[in-house]
Specification:
The complex is a heterodimer of chains A (247) and B (219). By secondary structure, chain A is of the alpha/beta class. Chain A has one domain: P-loop containing nucleotide triphosphate hydrolases (Rossmann fold, 3-Layer(aba) Sandwich). Chain A is built from nine helices and ten strands. In chain A, helix 3 packs across helix 4, helix 3 packs parallel to helix 5 and helix 5 runs parallel beside helix 6. The longest helix of chain A has 15 residues. Chain A is globular. Chain B is built from eight helices and no strands. In chain B, helix 1 packs antiparallel against helix 7 and helix 1 runs parallel beside helix 8. The longest helix of chain B is centred in the first third of the chain and has 41 residues. Chain B starts with a helix and ends with a helix. The chains are: A alpha/beta (247), B mainly alpha (219). The interface between A and B is medium-sized, with 28 and 21 residues.
Chain lengths: 247, 219
């Protein structure tokens, strides 16, 4: 399989705190990698390094052979090719849903307005939000906002999509509607890196599950082996936190 | 109160009203310009300039307009620069207002969450583009109530212009009282004309607030 993203010996620390240590990860085109791990293990930081929202101190992130470096001029071009959806609903509150989606294709990619509008409407229909296109973000529920955020990332035609705990702030019922959209994307062979705490979802969508703990990759394997026969003690302990039984 | 006196004074007050209004609005336009530019300097933490702007804001926020007027009107000629009373009034109002506006705009800019910047960056936007399309419209929308309050405050401050013999409303009232002792009529007209000047600003402010804040804050 053709590789699209390669992370080589990535390390990162904030002052004295080491957040990531010697991360090596290769993602193939069309692959869905799910990153799990306890809070504070560096999952979000890893995603943020991939699109250069965090500076990279040691190691490299390569998108299709090109180095991601937030201090160089080509970072903007690279970010156009890497879509990201954040945990907090980060829609632009002063714009309608349609304008939120169309801003970057028009201003960054300088695409034709009619064509962008048509695509935006198609994508909104696909996530079931056609009727909301002229509304403002404050008029939408959390789940709806997150679906719009996904569309806003998708319309840039990114080669890789990053999801940073996109359902962590949602009610259980809204989690479902957002995850269904992401499952739909997986069926279109999108390359995705997903950070999540939803284990059932991880199991269903992942081609590969990566367990991150204290800034290092502890275990990675296909979802069935990972969830049913984890190799490391750390993975077993982590997975046991999702099980409940009466003492 | 003598209605005949009031009627005969109205043209004098009307003239002063338009003078006050003109200087007031030129000063306010200047204040908005200075305030915005100052807020940008502080928001982007531009080295050197930031220190200068902070000094300017503290100096003008913490001194009365009357004293600023005296400094500009009597101080500048002492160093060989002489300006007319009208220009002096507008400049002083602009400088005082600028220091207030700067803080209002800055609070608006800083109230926009950082995640907005990050999500715009993640879409490949340049710093300039994301400031213009994402940060600034939200910041303005947030600071509208404070800006409107500043405008009303500045228009009221014009009442000290008479101190540098500008023939404004206050000057006219004091002049007429001094000449004819028609204290009641003069003060009555003074109040009426200030209300006529400020009420529309209040109403326009509420309208503007509604319009500019609808997208983010609703009705």
């Amino acid at each position: 399989m053709e590789e699209i993203l390669k992370i080589e010996g990535l390390s990162k620390s904030f002052d004295d705190l080491t957040v990531l240590e010697d991360i090596n990860l290769t993602v193939a085109k069309g692959e869905v990698v799910v990153i799990v791990g306890p809070s504070g293990c560096g999952k979000s930081t890893l995603l943020r390094c991939i699109n250069g929202l965090e500076s990279i101190e040691e190691g490299k992130v390569l998108l299709d052979g090109e180095t991601v470096n937030p201090t160089t001029g080509n970072i903007r071009k690279l970010r156009e090719r890497i879509g990201m959806v954040f945990q907090s609903y980060d829609l632009f509150p002063h714009m309608t849903i349609l304008d939120n989606i169309m801003l970057a294709p028009l201003k960054v990619q300088k695409r034709d307005k009619a064509e962008v509008k048509k695509e935006a409407e198609e994508l909104l229909a696909r996530v079931g939000l056609s009727s909301k296109k002229d509304n403002y973000p404050r008029q939408l529920s959390g789940g709806q906002k997150q679906r719009v955020a996904i569309v806003r990332a998708l319309i840039m035609n990114p080669e890789v999509l990053l999801f940073d705990e996109v359902t962590a702030a949602l009610d259980p019922e809204m989690v479902r509607e957002v995850l269904d959209v992401i499952l739909d994307l997986a069926s279109q062979d999108r390359t995705m890196i997903i950070v999540t705490h939803e284990m059932a979802f991880a199991k269903a969508i992942a081609d590969r599950v990566v367990l991150l703990d204290a800034g290092t990759i502890v275990e990675q394997s296909d979802p069935i082996s990972f969830f049913e026969s984890p190799k490391t003690e750390r993975a077993k302990k982590f997975l046991s936190t999702f099980e409940y039984s009466k003492q | 109160m003598d209605l005949e006196v009031i009627r005969s004074y109205i043209p004098l007050f009307a003239k002063a009203f338009f003078l006050t209004l003109r200087i007031g609005w030129i000063g306010i336009a200047l204040a908005i310009l200075i305030g915005m530019l100052s807020a940008f300097v502080l928001y982007f933490r531009i080295p050197m300039l930031s220190g200068f702007i902070k000094f300017y804001i503290e100096l003008f926020r913490n001194t009365p307009l009357l004293i600023q007027l005296f400094f500009i009107y009597f101080g500048l000629p002492a160093i060989g620069l002489s300006i007319s009373a009208e220009v002096c009034g507008a400049v002083a109002l602009g400088l005082l207002g600028g220091s207030y506006m700067a803080e209002s705009f800055r609070s608006g800019l800083e109230a926009v969450p950082y995640i907005q910047t990050e999500s715009a960056m993640a879409l490949g936007m340049s710093k300039g583009r994301l400031f213009i399309s994402v940060i600034l419209p939200q910041a303005i929308s947030i600071s509208v109530p404070a800006i409107v309050a500043n405008i009303i405050f500045l228009l009221k401050e014009t009442s000290v212009f008479s101190a540098i013999s500008l023939m404004d409303l206050m000057f006219t009232a004091k002049d007429l009282i001094g000449l004819y002792y028609d204290t009641t009529e003069s003060l009555f007209l003074l109040v009426i004309f200030y209300v006529i000047m400020l009420l529309p600003v209040s109403f326009a402010g509420s309208f503007l607030e509604k319009k500019m804040r609808y997208s983010m804050f609703g009705d």
